[in-house]
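Methods: example folding runs. The two proteins below were folded one after another, and each record is reproduced exactly as written to the output file, sequence line first and structure-token line second.
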Amino acid sequence: MNFARAQHYLDYLTKAGWFTPQFMRDQAQQFRRRDVDFRRTRQAYGPPTGFGFGWILYTPQPEKVVAAALATGRITATETDAGQWQARVQLPDNGRLVLDLVAAADSARIETIYPDGIEQLAGQ
């Protein structure tokens, strides 16, 4: 695993301001776990385990998933606690992505993203 590039990617996501510090720590930990897997398995063909689908949105075409959800109004959000919300993005084929959001200054930030109903497709 190229940790310099992984760190550059994480720095970019951090600067975007969409994610909580906890989310970013979780992503860094995920990179470390995948590195251990790469060293253990020495996989040489096909997408590496854990990378067959998009890293954050669990799809090989995140831009299409988000565009379709926005175009069809297939995103719902509910407040779960004061300063916390859960958004559900209905995917074009099957299942949903669930985003847990928390209040941060003048906006909300993503704390977690996880699949709901697509785990078999995403190899989860």
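Second run, written to the same file directly after the first:
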Amino acid sequence: MVDLSGADAAIAHDLNTRLRALRSWAPVVGGRAPYWYGQMLTGLVLTLGDGSVRLLTGAYVTDEAKFAARLIVFTDELLVRANINGRLRQDVANVDISAIRRTALQKFGVYGTTSVFEDSAYTYWPGSVSVRLRYEGESKDVDLPLDMPAGEASKEELRALVATLPADLLRD
């Protein structure tokens, strides 16, 4: 048996902290987290390896009996996606985690809500930012953000990621 320690424990703690800050994930992490949540964190830690999380965004939606959850995690080198589907109030769920190279980026679009011509724009520029990414071999575009914690820190993480996209597009 191997204990979770060192860098793996730090990544698990970082992911857990970031997920607890997402408003849409409150039903999952507000009390005792279901078993699948721990399994998902294990899968993410193993997939991320030594990579530091640069951005985490996610969505958790429910209907009367089921839920669907999505996470998108960026490191310097990887885009990691987690899709989770299951029944509400159950410890078991289908957890699917996959990773692709960020350099597989084929196309991106960035949209800001603030005009550079507004006098007050420089205080809030670029306003809210949304991004659409297309990766080689992927059938669906990646739209960001899904759900982000409130505050400037998460906006800055998204803006910092956007600043690296041209380099991702040009790298082989």
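Comment on the second run: The CA atoms of residues 51 and 125 lie 30 Å apart.
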